[in-house]
Amino acid sequence: MATGQLWLFPPPKPLVERFGDDFFHQVPTSPGVYYFCGRTEGVLYIGKAKSLRKRLTSYRVANPERMARRTIRLLFLVERIEWDVCSDEASAIQRERMLLRVLQPKFNRANRYPPSRVYLGDSPSQSSPRFLLSQPSTQSLVAPSPVNVSISSPSIRSGRY
User: Which residue has the higher pLDDT, 66 or 143?
Assistant: First the structure.
């Protein structure tokens, strides 16, 4: 028994209609980073893949049962697909992170901004010890050291314990 909805028309294939079936056979099977580019917007999306051919082929059919609406909208906006071949998956990850931070594509959500560092230090000007959380540019801290801290409590932000 078939799962899912019966369709009057088959799901659209915007990338196949735009680039043809042969385009997907030309894509290398090596790891790398791929770019979906729009007509006027520049780079819309950046992704990485262990196998560029397998990953790009997964975008051939814009099936609403398997893809988010956001992804389907992206596929209809793509006018050009480019890729950079990398030596291994680790270098592809590094390249993708760097490109996401520089280009900040519209359709990417994760890794667009570098992780923020918070520094923990004490203030020598106070008579009682008082610990401060600050950004790296603050010069008033004594011996700052980087820590991974989630600042969510108002008492932590203000320095009251």
Answer: 66
